[in-house]
Amino acid sequence: MSNHLKFFIDGAWVDPAVPAVLDVIDPSTEEAYTQISVGSKADVDKAVAAAKRAFSTFSLWPVAERLALLKKVLEVYNERFEDIAQAVSQEMGAPLSFAREAQAWAGRAHMESTIAALETYEFSEKRGSTTVVKEPIGVCALITPWNWPLNQIVCKVAPAIAAGCTVVLKPSEIAPISGVVFSEVMEAAGVPKGVYNMVQGNGPDVGQVMAGHPDVDMVSFTGSTRAGIIVTKTAADTVKRVAQELGGKSANIILPDADLETAVRKGVQGCFGNSGQSCDAPTRMLVPADRHDEALGYAKSEAETFVVGDPRSEETVLGPVVSQLQFDKIQRLIEAGIKEGATLVTGGPGRPENLNRGYYIRPTIFGNVTNDMTIAREEIFGPVLSILPYKDEEEAVTIANDTVYGLAAYVQSQDIAHARKVAARMRAGSVYLNYPEWDTFAPFGGYKQSGNGREYADWGIHDFLEIKGIVGYGD
């Protein structure tokens, strides 16, 4: 029996306090394929109360028992791996291969990294006669986005449980079914009653209620900067900790000594991955001005290899973006790029020619972009790349840092020592040199309006802990 219309609270699947439903749209067809229930304050109160009751005992569990629990969750997750991938593909339009190899894989990888981190994590240290201990912060409200559903769910749930916290999760109402499957995983793994709870719903009626709830000790939020500001203001009245991973407009500096063709082609791939719906995507490519036109040629050639289409087709590389709202926003920004004088290299407004329904975007490259243009300032969240020329390295660094965001930055050079020096000047939480492999043990989070706090492995565990000094503890 489907749990789509239920919430998971206190170890059981329950109906909402007030019946209300929301269609879940398949972005490849623009049609509803299922419904979820949407919650209210009464559901949040029930879930938080369950988490608060469970915290009194779960917070005292030995690390070995928490480890065993997470390993069981990982085991069941792997058993449900294909169900998770299918859910992500349908709810957000990810091609099935990408849903398996990136989306569902990310949840597995982060669970494995959290387990590995917990196995060696030190929860206390002696400093003379003082002992410093790290204790679970309490009941945690976890609010996750639609663009990397399992990545963000596991990046919050796993370290919270590793730390000894209890949680209430609100998945995105736009891509909620993967959250249902994950909740089924948690149930099957035998997570104790109240330790993990899940309530579906929208931001104002569920997310903000969680953020402002007096019995919630911490909020971990991933989403837009606009929504993050609302969450922070709501949480401020009860002076709780807020960890946020927000928007980005990441620069990709291709230094003059880089292999230009390789750097440009990989940069296009990085920007377009997940249909451009990644907050750390390298969306501003900075190239030497005297090779700008050459870079445009490589970018055009690479962009035109991307097959846009049905997520269920093996040939598809890019599926649709997630919603009508996102589609309309991206169209508006593409039009703004044209109006403001950027060179449209390939792509442009409207759907690809072979598609007449679904939220499909034409893979788009803009050249001759200046950093004051709308497409260089706003997070587009679609397969749209802006290429900006620079005259020297100093100007490149200035342009890269001239943004309200600071989530990620990218540097390409055949001289790794040089790349490291440029990386040191980037005002961003992550800097990637020469397109490295994804490292799930590296800290992930942002400077400036890209948020605060860090996720992944031991960095994530740290955010869910309080620090207590016991002075006079003795030897």
UniProtKB/TrEMBL annotation:
Keywords in alphabetical order: Metal-binding, NADP, Oxidation, Oxidoreductase, Potassium
Aldehyde dehydrogenase domain segment(s): 13-468
Record Gene3D superfamilies: Aldehyde Dehydrogenase, Chain A, domain 1, Aldehyde Dehydrogenase, Chain A, domain 2
InterPro entries: Ald_DH/histidinol_DH, Ald_DH_C, Ald_DH_N, Aldehyde_DH_dom
UniProt keyword NADP, yes or no: yes
Domain of life from the UniProt record: Bacteria
One Pfam family named in its UniProt record: Aldedh
Recorded GO MF terms: metal ion binding; oxidoreductase activity, acting on the aldehyde or oxo group of donors, NAD or NADP as acceptor
Ranges that cross the membrane: none
Keyword NADP: yes
CDD domains assigned: ALDH_CddD_SSP0762
The name this protein goes by in its record: Aldehyde dehydrogenase family protein
Record organism: Rhizobium daejeonense
